[in-house]
Write a structure and sequence with these properties.
This protein is mainly β. The longest helix has 5 residues. The protein contains one helix and 17 strands.
């Protein structure tokens, strides 16, 4: 079974020209994964934090679990995401689901104190896209039916390279194809879909604008 369902669309804009080949790598296709945790330097308690799982929707960056109160034999904790938004509140010793992260704060021999905290790193981890076909469809405008440029990772001469386990794809469109594309510095609306050949199911992987000029000197000049 492929990892098609894990792919989330990303926006990427490109600058291309009629006089050069289009050789561009796209950002990694990934899913949030646990990168590690770090105890606050001023922590009093010597307990530990474990992260059994990270869901695809978890925000990338540093989440923080902090002790906010102690009472009745319980240690209360609050979790915030990288933007500072509270995603969960709970108690130490009980698993907690917070914004896509499942975590467990376990007390140690020295009790936690109010203000003790742990940072939880969430970073993208590559999705294995081996076997998936990627197809680019560029239109004259966002709502236009007219196709201006197409490229695919399938066929005998693929114009999109599939990086497999690295979770990356790259454009390898020849200069001859780019020369036939009319200049349009304001951009062609494009989308790249990922398709599982075994099922025929397809999802959006990338979208954005292709800003196309005659020569590299015109890039970014509205020519």
């Amino acid at each position: 079974m492929s990892n098609l369902a894990l792919i989330q669309p990303q926006r990427v804009d490109f600058d291309t020209t009629q006089g050069t080949d289009w050789l561009d790598g796209l950002p990694m296709i990934g899913t949030p994964g646990f990168a590690g945790s770090l105890a606050g330097s001023g922590n009093v308690g010597n307990g530990s934090l474990t992260v059994p799982g990270v869901a695809p929707g978890a925000a990338l960056g540093a989440h923080v679990a902090a002790v906010t109160a102690i009472g009745g034999g319980l240690t209360y904790i609050c979790v915030t995401d990288p933007s500072g938004t509270v995603t969960a509140q709970g108690v130490a010793g009980v698993p907690l689901y917070a914004g896509g992260i499942t975590l467990l704060l376990t007390p140690g021999a020295i009790p936690f104190a109010i203000g003790d905290s742990f940072a939880i790193g969430v970073v993208p981890q590559a999705i294995d896209i081996t076997g998936l076909r990627f197809d680019l469809d560029a239109r004259a405008s966002v709502g236009a039916a007219t196709i201006a440029l197409q490229a695919s990772s399938g066929g005998a001469n693929p114009a999109i390279a599939n990086g497999g386990a690295l979770g990356t794809i790259a454009m390898v469109v020849t200069r001859a194809a780019m020369a036939r594309l009319p200049v349009k510095s304001e951009g062609y609306a494009y989308g790249i879909t990922a398709t599982d050949p075994a099922t025929g199911l397809a999802v959006p992987a990338f979208y954005g604008l292709i800003h196309h000029t005659a020569v590299p000197a015109q890039i970014g000049q509205g020519a």
